[in-house]
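Bug #77: duplicate submission created two jobs. Keeping one. Sequence:
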Amino acid sequence: MKFKSDFLNEIDARGFIYQDIDIENLDKIILKNKISGYIGFDITSDSLHVGSLIQLMLLHWLDFYGHQSIALVGGGTTLIGDPSGKDKTRKILTKNQIDKNINNIEKTFNRFINLNKNSLIINNYDWLSSLNYIDFLREFGSKITLNKMLTFESVKSRLDREQPLTILEFNYMLLQAYDFLHLNKEYNCILQMGGSDQWGNILSGVDLIKKINNKNAFGITSPLITNNDGSKMGKTADGAVWLNKDKISSLDFFQFWRNVNDNDVSKFLYLFTKLPLKEIEKLSTLRNEEINEAKKILAYEVTKLVRGKEDADEALEIAENIFNSNINDSRLPNISEKKMNLQGDIFTILDAIEKLELVKSRSEIKRLIKSDGVRVNDELYKNSNLSLKEYAGLKEIKISIGKKKIGILKII
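Kept job's structure:
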């Protein structure tokens, strides 16, 4: 056991700690007192994606061990845009767009931290919007130097590639440091956590608290999570893997985790599930065909955490029904799921396959049907009129394109 406090010991054992600021003293404080810690989230979309999942889990474990977790939504800072880890300046959103995004995202936090106790969602627009710019620069602008900011990797990488870094984005770092200072004053928040690209911003906040509040503050960054091939986790050929159900179905979300690389399974079980460490140790020993059981558990546990037990149970049932029917491949196929009204928006097999996004063109669908490449409910589809009306009385239709593409139509 590296740390004495339960929280730090837990996140260390699971692989969350990459860099830290004075973590030994933080360990001593946590051992004796409950603390407040926060993570900031940009609100550039109406949903978080799986790239934010490691930060949500950090908030969860802080909350789990009885501390106050603060999810800070950047209603103010998103109006500017964080340059950290970005290759170019981001599109500026309006306040109305950001407010709508916040409303959609707030329900996600509720699955990870207990908002009915002392954990909180706070919007930094509440204090940043009322700042007097001249007063702000006089009081805080002199406390953070450009010399130090230019040493941060997030800034150096942009400048080394001769990519523009605007004054607007430079101000972001100062505002994020001010966020930590504000939370320290108002909530006695002493810990900021974030991804490794936030290291410079966290350091600036810790320094500002020491200079203005004359208090010690602490920081922890998590490692950049990539797939085994080095690609950014959460990105697929079809785009980001979103946490909100209206952006990607629970079945597709389940399948993302079910189909991860074998070498990533153990790491993801530690980071993205709440399974006991001893159980993960056992699952991590599985190899070859047996590792599919660990993948199934990973997919179920993450889906349950993000979408709820009901959605996880349904996704697991559909996946297992397909797997146990007539597919002998060692990995589950790519599965698409849609809810549709056969009397209204779908009448033909062409419409169905197109809506399920199983095949790119209608001409390709016709070719597959002629070459016996399409099955409906595990039977070859041979209807020359391309109709699906004979299936209208069913609650569910399974459409298969070979062995690796399957669509589920839920009839409503």
